[in-house]
Amino acid sequence: MRNSLNILFIFPLVLVGCKLSKQLKLEPESFLKWYSSEENSFKSSDTLNGICYSISAYPQEVSIAICAMNKCEPKQTLETDLKNKSQLNTYLLELTNLNSKGDLFSLGASKGMSRNEQLIYLNNDIKYALKAVTESGDTLVCVSVIYEPLLANSFRLMIDFESSKSVSIDRIIYADRLINNSLIEFQFKNNNRSNFPHLNLTNYE
């Protein structure tokens, strides 16, 4: 009788556990939809002097989900990458001039910088104008910047911060020397990692 009661008690827990595990594991397409939802706060924006600054967390899982959907990587490679690195230490910073006639490079030129000097700044020196602050108050330095032009009035940068698996980034501070030398702060929700789901590659071939 006692064994029967134990089975009756454990069986519902197993069902609940299975249900929770399914909720926490998303297929690549569902994962990208979840990530892009505004309520999950992986994006922070601000507007200053006609320039819109938008920064998005870009975890390794996003790249893996895109590869999985496009079938561009073997499943084993994706699973290895996902296991080895899943930290939110890579971000996309996009700058857009809200004035349709404005060119971000012309604004930089008004500061006395040639186009070549601006490109050097965007690909290298800009990392000294970026820093991240963890929830515990520690400062992380930017270690890599990749510049990508979009339109005449916008460009974006992929930036990486020095971090470890034991920290999470609370906010990012950018001292924009190229455009207007202003200090811009991007704040992220504290829970944007606690509810981060697992990417399910079980059915990916």
UniProtKB/TrEMBL annotation:
<protein>
    <recommendedName>
        <fullName>Lipoprotein</fullName>
    </recommendedName>
</protein>
